[in-house]
Design brief:
By secondary structure, the protein is an alpha+beta fold. 40% of the residues lie in helices and 31% in strands.
């Protein structure tokens, strides 16, 4: 299940970025996800992995893009 590994990588980037910004909470995550990924699975996996972190409950905005890419486009933090 490559979605799980990808979701873990996304959350790692999100948490590292938030920590670098000294954020108390991540309120939104904007992603660009290639069509090779199951977007529904990515949404639920990221939400599950974020439980207990400062990204728990963050709104996920996912844009489907052509190709295999996966990128954190932006974050909203407090």
């Amino acid at each position: 299940m490559h979605e799980l590994a990808a979701a873990q990588d996304v959350l790692k980037v999100v948490l590292e970025t938030a920590q670098a910004q000294q954020a108390r909470r991540v309120t939104a995550i904007s992603l660009k996800v290639g069509r090779l990924y199951a977007i529904d699975q990515m949404e639920s996996l990221i939400a599950a992995l974020a439980e207990g972190t400062i990204a728990e409950g963050a709104r996920l905005e996912i844009e489907s893009v052509p190709g295999p890419g996966l990128a954190v486009e932006s974050l909203e933090v407090e």
